[in-house]
Amino acid sequence: MKRADGVYVQFCVQVDRTETIAPSGTAVGLDVGLKEFYTDSKGARVENPRFLRKGERVLKRSQRRVSRKVKGSRNRRKARVILGKRHLKISRQRKDHAVKLARSVIRSNDLVAYEDLRIKNLVKNQGLAKSINDASWYQFRVWLEYFGKVFSKITIAVPPHYTSQECSSCGVMVKKSLSVRTHICQCGCELDRDHNAARNILSRGLGTAGHVGTFMLDMSNTSGESTATWAGANLSLQVGS
Ligand SMILES: [Zn+2]
Prior knowledge:
Elements: E1 2-3, E2 6-7, E3 27-32, E4 36-40, E5 45-47, H1 50-68, H2 74-107, E6 111-115, H3 119-122, H4 126-134, H5 137-150, E7 154-158, E8 182-184, E9 190-192, H6 193-211, H7 215-220, H8 225-232, E10 236-239
Parallel strand pairs: 3-6, 6-7
Antiparallel strand pairs: 1-2, 3-4, 4-5, 7-10, 8-9
């Protein structure tokens, strides 16, 4: 607002903010890719942000420049300042990308399911870990969960086992190596590998969400069957709050 004695800027910072939006009527599963940032259960793909790969090259170059300079020299200090700036720029781009994408995914779906991937477990395979980092998947997930709370949407991390091997139509295991890009099942289901995985992720997510309200009932059920279902879906469930 403008006043005679200058311009005042009002900041409104809400930490525990919530926003109300109409339900979208849709649920989605996301499969993290190497080539794609993710493929969703409807078959849509979101490209990997190229700036991260490019940024990595820039960082390596700046890093080399630092190590080439004489230790303690003025030039080394300068090179280090440049390296720091590049780091900052890339981490800002990464965050920007994660925030925008997560917000839009949450706004347009009532339930979002994704694999409970832990970076720690992925480090075994360095190439994959690097790509996961590049794609800033982890950061994206954090923002998904954040916006899930803001917009009162459900976010569910499901166990990542066999999501790409199972047939999303009939549930049969169709073994395939990483290089096989298409899921072809005897039941007639033929889908892009990641699309099939995303559908499995969504159905696992829906299965878990469906059990939330019946958990207590299941505990009193002595048949053990429904309890087993719950135990089988031993997930880190993040619903709303
Ligand atoms: Zn099938």
